[in-house]
Design a protein that fits this description.
541 residues, Zinc Finger, Delta Prime, domain 3, alpha/beta, 5-stranded parallel sheet, single chain, 23 helices, Helicase, Ruva Protein, domain 3, 3-stranded mixed sheet
Length: 541
Amino acid sequence: MEYISLYRKYRPKTFSDVVGQEVVVKILKNSILNNKISHAYIFSGPRGTGKTSIAKIFSKAVNCLNTTDGDLCNNCENCLQNIDEEIDIIEIDAASNNGVDEIREIRNNVKLMPVHLKYKVYIIDEVHMLSTSAFNALLKTLEEPPKHVIFILATTEFNKIPATVISRCQKFDFKKITNKQIEDRLKYILEQEKKSLNGEVISLIAKLSDGGLRDAINMLDQVISLEKENVTVDDVYNLIGDISEKNIIILLENIVSGNIKETLKNINKYYEEGKNFINICERLQLLIRNIIIFNNTDNYFDKEYEKKLLDFSHIELEYCEKMSDELFNLINELKRTNNQKIITEISFLKMCLMQNKKEEKNIDKIETKNNSKDNEIPIIIEEKQNEEKEKNKSIKINNVFCGPSKELKNNFVKNYEKLKEFLSIKEYNSLVNLLLKATPQIVTETNVLFTFKNNFDIVLFDNKIEEIQDLLRKIFGKKYSVVAVNNEEYSNILKEYKKNIDSGKIYKYIEEPHIETKDNKNTKIENTAETLFGKDCIIVE
């Protein structure tokens, strides 16, 4: 007996078999039930979400002789016809039939009445692949079609379809299938096939399919073909040429720690095993994205996953951005070359060296005069700098309550619109976009407190604070000291302010400490010396 792939074997035969597209199914069933059938439809959505399957079901349902609640009976003469052999239901692959001649042939054939059925249905798959001239040839037919013809246009790239075509069709958006729905369908198939898999493997297949049920069933078909008693998560990763989440984390740990030897060793191992480097890079990007979110938000991920991210909580945003950019460029290069190993090695080396250089800047070793190794003192400046930043932030928050007024705030907000004038300047574009997200809340003659909706923008703000103050000076013609907080923190600050005022506290202006700029020479030496011996002992010539 000929073997049939699982995705074909368990392809939905009726609307009731369809998984995850309840809204689409309901509308189509109602249109059949109420005899309000349109002449043209567009089914748009990700691959493997049921577009072609529903198109085939719909084409049979509109021709069914005994529909029940808008669904086909699967028992009448028309329903029992093999859809792949039915001459009145024509399925066309636009990827290989994308020329104007093929569409002209359709235009000539639509005039002919159906041979067996009530409606002649044209299912054009991957319709976005049609040429411009082919779309133009299709327009007239879509505008004035014969009453016996229905067009169903399926696409994964809706943005490529001309607006003139879209306006002549009813559009249906197909959403990704949820992991839970995919898992339930896989369990049903396993039950029918009298096979079993552990829940962890089923969940992984659902996760890796990224909302595409067809991809999930194909993956399940491969896993079953292993004929293994206890299929593991690693077996699934090996099948798709990928590596486990644990190994992705280990790979990033080696990069972040600057461990070049282990990084290259892993790359060589994965190359010999035939792993897909594009998949690996994309998953590294996803992990870096999750690290950024974890470091700047609370309770976004489940507790179990947060435990895995804790080891990366020290990584700075700037380094994450650089790694992400490097991986983005690498993915594009990998798509264009056959020599993946060397290109991957070079990019991963760059990321390792990025961190090594950073560590060199953050840690200084000071040797004493006796040159004894026991007296070497490693100085970690970063921690002290963070403390100073927090102290400086508190001073700035204090100072915004020294002479704020509504008039000053109104004048500031009025001139704040001038920011948009700097959008066209490349140097200021990112700063302006950031400031436009901010809300000026408290303004004095010299200080401004901004609020942001999320912590990610605050991190960006703090990293660019000097540039922001310089930009504001250009706009307002005066220097402002700025500070940014989130909405929750702002609310707490106001409560504390009211409490202090009620208790009779008077806010006094505090001079902000001088912060060395990047251009100042000897900054690193001065900071180190100050850390060791105290500010009063430092003399700089």
